[in-house]
Amino acid sequence: MQTAAIRQAQDRPSRQLVRPMQVDDIAQVMEIEQQSFPTMWPPTAFKRELEHNRLARYLAAEERRREALRPRRMQPPPTAAPRTGLGRFLGGLRHVLAGDGELPPPEARQGLVVGFVGIWLLVDEAHVVTIAVRDSHRRRGVGELLLITAIETALRERQSVVTLECRISNAVALRLYEKYGFQQVGLRRRYYSDNREDAYILSASGIDTPSYRRRFQRLRNEHQQRCGEYEFSL
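^ that's the sequence the OP posted. Answer follows.
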């Protein structure tokens, strides 16, 4: 159930944009990772991708509020006894996931990362390696927006094919990918380490052809009419 504070924050005027992911986004990205994937990438993997992988393009969908809800002033907690064993381990894990400190609650952030997508630009294709949306913003068109920006990134980089993997049980995602021209071209057996589920290999080819561009523009316009405009800063 939503609290009154969250509802009030969501009602505030906000600006939506998609932009390159920054290292400072990793703490929020880890929140989305935890919600979306049974087996998470560590924060260091994202940092390495952003700083050292020249083939990678990571984009973040961000909701920027003109005025974020200020968190209540809290009394400092009592000094705790030194932690040992499991307590010290869990405290260190929270520190890693949160970055340099604890994040404020989502409704108190001026800029809330609501989803992200990662693309690798290979020799003959653009491969979508990850795409995820914050729980609170699912079924709002954010996943489709991230797919749109992935295809736009491929077009800008002069790629003609986009590929990705998808769980065979993820019917919602499969319908979305089919709408954008992805077809099943293979199967990766026991691809997902959490439950050994198979993955379909999906491919959208000829995205640089006039016919696909017309289809893509129509779908992009329909998404904009349903979900509103987003600012692109790519």
